[in-house]
Amino acid sequence: MNIIYVKNNEEMALKAASIIAAQVTLKNDCVLGLATGGTPVGTYANLIKWCKEGHISFKNVRSVNLDEYCNLPVTHPESYRCFMNTNLFDHVDIDKANTNVPDGLAADSEKAAKDYDALIDSLGVDLQLLGIGYNGHIGFNEPDSAFTMGTHVVELTQSTLEANARFFDNDVSKVPTHAITMGMRNIMSAKRILLIGGAEKAEIIEKAFFGPVTPEVPASILQLHKDVTVVCVKA
Ligand code: GLP
C-alpha cells in the first residue's frame, strides 16, 4: 500500500491525474474504472487540460463507472452518466461508445446489474479510481456489504442519502433511494486501485487503511489488494 499525503485538494487532483495519465500513457487501450462525487472533479479537470494540450489521449481507452442511481433520468445533472459526460467525457477524445455506466433506468435492474458484472469481468479493469464515503463506503457498497459481492442493486443508507442531499437542493427526499453499484469483488479485481480523499475524509481513511479489515468499513478490504495507492490531504 502506498499512501501519498498532500497539502490540499489541488495537489491531490494533480497527483491523481498524473497517476491516471501515466496509466493511459503506458497502455493507451487501458480500461479505466471511474468514480463520481465531488472528490474527483479536480482530477478530471487536469486530465481534460492535458488532453486538450495533446499530452494524453483517451482515443483507445474504455471505461466502466462504479455506480449509478436507479430511476434518475440520464439527462438529470446528478445522474452519474450526466456527471461523467459533463466532467470528463464531453471534453476529451474518448469514444463515448467505449464508456460504460450501469443502467439505472433498466426495467429489470437486477438483470442490468448482472449484465454489468459480466461486462466488467470481460473487460478487466487496469486502474480503478475511487472516492470514499464518510462511513467508508466505496462505490455504493455500504457498511456490512459482503466482500464477495459482484455488481448489485443496493438501498442507500440514511447517512449516504444525507451526504448526497447537497447535490439535490439539500433535500434528502429528492435523493434516489436505490443504486446499482460494482461490488467489492469487482473493485478488488482491478489490477491497480487509486483512492483519493480530501481533508474531510482523513478520519475515515485512517480507519480504513490502519484499522481492522471489516465489512463495517467497506474500504478496509483494500488493505488486502496488492496494488493500492491512496492520495489524501493531510488533516
Ligand atoms: C458517493 C459515491 C461514491 C463517492 C462517495 C464520496 O455516494 N457513490 O462513489 O466516492 O459518495 O463522494 P464525494 O467525493 O462527493 O465525497
What does the model show?
This protein is α/β, with parallel strands linked by helices. The protein has one domain: 3-Layer(aba) Sandwich (Rossmann fold). Helix content is 31%, strand content 18%. The protein is globular, with a radius of gyration of 16 Å. The two termini are 20 Å apart. Bound molecules: 2-amino-2-deoxy-6-O-phosphono-alpha-D-glucopyranose.
Instruction: Round the mean pLDDT to the nearest integer and report it.
Output: 96
Ranges where pLDDT stays below 50 over 5 or more residues in a row are none
Largest sheet: 7 strands, parallel
CATH level 1 name:
Alpha Beta
Principal-axis shape equals: globular
Termini gap: 20 Å
By DSSP (H or I, 4+ residues per run), the number of helices equals: 7
- What is the CATH topology descriptor? Rossmann fold
DSSP, total strands: 10
Structural class: alpha/beta
Q: Which ligands accompany this protein?
A: 2-amino-2-deoxy-6-O-phosphono-alpha-D-glucopyranose
Can you give keywords for this protein?
single chain; alpha/beta; Rossmann fold; three-stranded antiparallel sheet; globular; binds 2-amino-2-deoxy-6-O-phosphono-alpha-D-glucopyranose
Short structural summary:
31% of the residues lie in helices and 18% in strands. With 235 residues, it is an alpha/beta fold.
Layout: helices, strands, pairs:
Elements: E1 2-6, H1 9-26, E2 31-34, H2 41-52, E3 62-65, E4 67-69, H3 80-87, E5 99-100, H4 109-123, E6 127-130, E7 152-155, H5 158-164, E8 178-181, H6 184-188, E9 192-197, H7 202-210, E10 228-233
Parallel strand pairs: 1-10, 2-3, 2-6, 3-5, 6-9, 9-10
Antiparallel strand pairs: 4-8, 7-8
Helix pairs in contact: 1-2
Bound molecules: 2-amino-2-deoxy-6-O-phosphono-alpha-D-glucopyranose.
